[in-house]
Design brief:
Largest sheet: 4 strands, parallel
Keywords: Glycosyltransferase, Transferase
CATH topology of the largest domain: Rossmann fold
GO molecular function: glucuronosyltransferase activity
Order of helices and strands: HEEEEHEHEHHHEHEHHH
Distance between the termini: 21 Å
Number of domains: 2
Pfam family, one: UDPGT
Helix content: 40-55%
Shape: globular
Family: Belongs to the UDP-glycosyltransferase family.
Number of helices: 10
CATH class of the largest domain: Alpha Beta
InterPro entries: UDP-glycosyltransferase, UDP_glucos_trans
């Protein structure tokens, strides 16, 4: 990223609270950052760009629980572009609190079946909000025209964000991932072809290091296979269809079915 954004006179970034959009001129970058600590990480990147005389615009959902787009300190450095989503800040923040509470106080005394059902329900609701936010960006013609007119040169994406890569694709921009993080490393392995030998690189969220016993390596391998299968099924049932729909609307009737990767 540094060779692209920091060696040129100007840069445009874009991100939003679920994809923020920093912006400048010369090299233009689209920042897609997540919430909470993910936003703090992305903000540090943007502040450094501002320090180096880049101008930055931030596209943020009005329900973001992390990005205070009315903060005078941040408004002095970034130009916030706020788009509306059909859910509230409390609803989005409540999902995170629910996950943290279960992980800290209930998970260790819950059965594997309970953990699975809780995770499935939380993922279903989280994806539901994420898809609504995708619609609020990608099916908002006025917003997409604004982004095209801004003439960005690249998209910086926090992989926690849904559809940030699709925004980059629709705008015809190269994509930069800000960090390596997905459950089981499926996104990085299947889409980015990152090496991840299960005997030395345990999948998140397993608490192992690079030195594992035989049983831990076996668990690591089974977890990789299980998470890969479940993620691929999830992509096929949700995101593949959505990506084909959005990209097909712009490419015309000759467009073929696509997939998440």
């Amino acid at each position: 990223m540094s060779s692209l954004t920091l060696t040129r006179a100007e840069a445009r970034l874009s991100s939003y609270s679920a994809c923020l959009l920093p912006n400048t001129a010369g090299v233009s970058e689209d920042h897609c950052s997540g919430e909470y600590s993910h936003w703090l990480n992305m903000r540090n990147i943007m502040e450094e760009l501002v320090r180096r005389n880049h101008s930055v615009s931030v596209l943020v959902a009005d329900a973001s629980p992390s990005v205070d787009y009315n903060n005078s300190r941040d408004a002095a450095k970034f130009n916030f572009l706020v788009f509306k989503v059909p859910f509230s800040r409390a609803e989005l923040h409540g999902l995170t609190e629910e996950l943290v509470h279960f992980s800290m106080y209930e998970s260790h005394v819950s059965s594997p079946l309970t953990k699975f059902l809780k995770a499935r329900d939380w993922l279903r609701r989280t994806v539901g909000l994420g898809m609504q936010q995708c619609d609020s960006m990608l099916k908002n013609e006025q917003l997409m025209v604004t982004l095209r007119d801004a003439a960005f040169d690249a998209v910086l994406l926090d992989p926690m964000v849904m559809c940030g890569d699709l925004v980059a694709d629709v705008l015809g921009l190269p994509l930069i991932i800000s960090l390596r993080f997905s459950i089981g490393g499926v996104l990085e392995r299947h889409c980015g072809h990152a090496p991840a030998p299960p005997s030395y690189v345990p999948p998140a969220p397993l608490p192992y290091g690079d030195h594992m016993t035989f049983v831990e390596r076996l668990i690591s391998t089974v977890a990789y296979v299980w998470l890969s299968v479940m993620t691929e099924v999830f992509w096929r049932l949700t995101l593949d269809q959505y990506y084909s729909e959005v990209k097909g609307q712009r490419a015309g009737p000759s467009y073929r079915h696509t997939n998440y990767c």
